[in-house]
């Protein structure tokens, strides 16, 4: 079920119920829902996701009833351990930068400490410089050249060197030529390309194909 449909289904529910629903979705799916919610309520819901430490039985029962009514075939909810700072950070990571920045700005205005805690857990494009070389090589094989060129247009020299280091000499030279010949690009396009690569990295990490920690311990 797409994010717009889910957002329409929960739009009249209490924000705490919406936050719980989002916590049960994959972060990219939850981000699609957030993008469809009214702008005035997004920051409140993300803050509720971040501060979820558990769900009272009565609230969980109410959510179960909502799921049964709105999401036909949805498995009944058993666990009350959901949400939290990392969940909020993961959702924000999948949002367009303009939406993400707006939500984070509103959260910081209300609770700067909470905003900083969420920000510390968000995985940003520059963090890819910390992953091990084998993981970077695997990631680059999954990224289209045009997307990589756009992403690197807004990257620092450390990130560029990390990429060049993990390409063959010929591929690295071709990429440098593409970067040099690429004219001015919109910041929004650069951010979108970076987020696309980050999403690929997270998917590969979830599937155990790469290590985002930089330890490389997952490989034998």
Give the topology.
Elements: H1 3-10, H2 15-24, H3 27-36, H4 39-50, H5 57-70, H6 85-93, H7 97-110, H8 112-121, H9 133-142, H10 145-153, H11 157-165, H12 169-181, H13 187-206
Helix pairs in contact: 1-3, 2-3, 2-4, 3-6, 4-6, 4-7, 6-8, 7-8, 10-13
Describe the largest sheet.
Answer: none
Order of helices and strands: HHHHHHHHHHHHH
Name given to the CATH architecture of the largest domain: Orthogonal Bundle
As an assembly, this protein is single chain
Shape descriptor reads elongated
CATH superfamily of the largest domain: Flagellar motor switch protein FliG, alpha-alpha superhelical domain
User: What's the CATH class of the largest domain, please?
Assistant: Mainly Alpha
**Structural domain count:** 2
Report strand %.
under 5%
What's the β-strand tally?
Answer: 0
């Amino acid at each position: 079920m797409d994010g717009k449909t889910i957002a329409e289904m929960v739009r009249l529910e209490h924000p705490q119920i919406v936050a719980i629903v989002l916590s049960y979705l994959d972060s990219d799916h939850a981000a699609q829902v957030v993008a469809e919610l009214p702008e005035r309520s997004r920051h409140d819901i993300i803050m509720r996701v971040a501060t979820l430490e558990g769900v009272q039985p009565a609230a969980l029962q109410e959510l179960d009833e909502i799921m049964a009514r709105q999401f036909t075939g949805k498995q009944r909810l058993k666990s009350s351990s959901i949400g939290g700072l990392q969940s909020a950070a993961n959702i924000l990571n999948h949002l367009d930068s303009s939406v993400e920045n707006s939500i984070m700005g509103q959260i910081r205005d209300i609770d700067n400490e909470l905003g900083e805690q969420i920000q510390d857990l968000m995985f940003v494009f520059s963090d890819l410089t910390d992953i091990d070389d084998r993981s970077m090589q695997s990631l680059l094989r999954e990224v289209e050249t045009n997307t990589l060129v756009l992403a690197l247009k807004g990257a620092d020299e450390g990130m560029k060197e990390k990429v060049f280091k993990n390409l063959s000499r010929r591929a690295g030279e071709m990429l440098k030529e593409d970067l040099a010949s690429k004219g001015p690009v919109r910041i929004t396009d650069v951010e979108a390309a970076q987020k696309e690569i980050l999403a690929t990295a997270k998917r590969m990490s979830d599937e155990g194909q790469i290590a985002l920690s930089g330890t490389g311990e997952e490989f034998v």
